[in-house]
Amino acid sequence: MDSISLSSSIELVAGSGFVLNVEQRAALQTSLAILKKNYKFQRIMFWGKILGIKQDYFIAQGRGEDEVQDKKYLYSFNCMDWFLLSSVTDSMIDEVSKAEQSRFIGDPSFMYKHKMSSQRKMSGAEDEAVSKVNEEMRLAVTIHHIEEDVSIAPRGAYIKSPFGLVQINRSFGGLNDMEARKLENFMHFRKPKNVKKSIQEMGQWSPDIDFLDVLSDDIPKGSWSLQFESAGKVCVLRSLLWMGLTFYHVPMTQQHGYVYIGDGMKNLNLVFMV
To answer: Is-contact 62 44, C-beta < 8 A?
Structure first.
């Protein structure tokens, strides 16, 4: 959610139990403005919070000229002092996938052990592999996975320029009430992987705005919960894959955004729930 409208945006997702106290809101609004200036971001977003056993990680997302491609992430424990996370690489993803998955500790230097195979567990053999994964690396990869899987934007909120840049669509006036009730009008806000153009089949496809994957094509079906809250004035989408991700949109307005507040653990039991 955009740092400029942080206080009002937090209220729109309060139904999920996501709140920031007065001190945290004040600290974020001040420090995020400084981050935007120091790192020369086009926009700065409050991305969310990953809960740790000892401390929680507050996450900020800075965006550059291209809203999809130019993203950087920073974390903080006190909403004032921020540390830049490394860009995620394929080798980092591979290393983290080999590490044991458990609750975040809240210590960036904490080192994770490698997973032990079932065969080695049965034999009682010690796992001699040296882990290369600290919690800061795991934090970066986890944020990357959440962004890839469940970041959201309403259809038409962003436009692809003739130069290929994804930017805010200044003429976007919001989805109407009927459109906001359909998953095909919400897009994955990351580099497209498999645009099936469900909207094209309805004769409404436009290459300028329909360049992202639609949520209605997600597998398994039923991985999203769509509801209207605040007396039916706010459309709220919640992910069942990454529980803690909440998206909001006020129909007929430009207000939309998402926030993740959770333990950073993917719901691997989703296929048995839907």
So the answer is: yes
Q: Which pair of tokens denotes residue 68? A: 């999809």
Which DSSP string do the residues of 168-195 spell out, in sequence order?
A: E-TT-----TTGGG-GGGEEESSS-S--
| Beta strand pairing call for 234-239 and 71-76 | unpaired
Kindly report the pTM of this predicted structure: 0.90
Query: Which structure tokens are listed for 199?
Result: 């909207």
User: Both tokens of residue 73?
Assistant: 């992430």
Q: Are 171 and 221 in contact (CB under 8 A)?
A: no
Length of the chain: 274
Which phi and psi angles does 38 have, rounded to 5°?
A: -65, -40
* pLDDT, tens only, 194-248: 766 544 554 567 788 889 999 999 988 889 999 999 888 999 999 999 999 999 9
Q: How far is CA 223 from CA 8, 111, 185, 241, in A?
A: 27, 32, 16, 6
